[in-house]
Amino acid sequence: MTFNQTDLSKYNGQDGQPAYVAVDGVVYDVTGVAAWAGGKHHGNLAGQELTTVIDTKSPHGRKVLNNLTVVGQYVAD
Description:
Elements: E1 2-3, H1 5-9, E2 20-23, E3 26-29, E4 40-41, E5 44-45, H2 51-56, E6 69-74
Parallel strand pairs: 1-6
Antiparallel strand pairs: 2-3, 3-6, 4-5
InterPro entries: Cyt_B5-like_heme/steroid-bd, Cyt_B5-like_heme/steroid_sf
Organism: Lactiplantibacillus pentosus DSM 20314
Protein name: Cytochrome b5 heme-binding domain-containing protein
């Protein structure tokens, strides 16, 4: 499945929606990750493209992505 920002923003973890985030063109499902409960994690919101955040502000970096389910590809608008 391919997501643009409009599509991805619908998967914000709110009102029963799944929580997805995009990093480097890949969309990951963070719905079942406790740290992403409610679609929020350390000030970041699900339904967003977070490549810069994970590369510059995340203490765990990209290694956590290996544990997530890939649900699609992200294409910028």
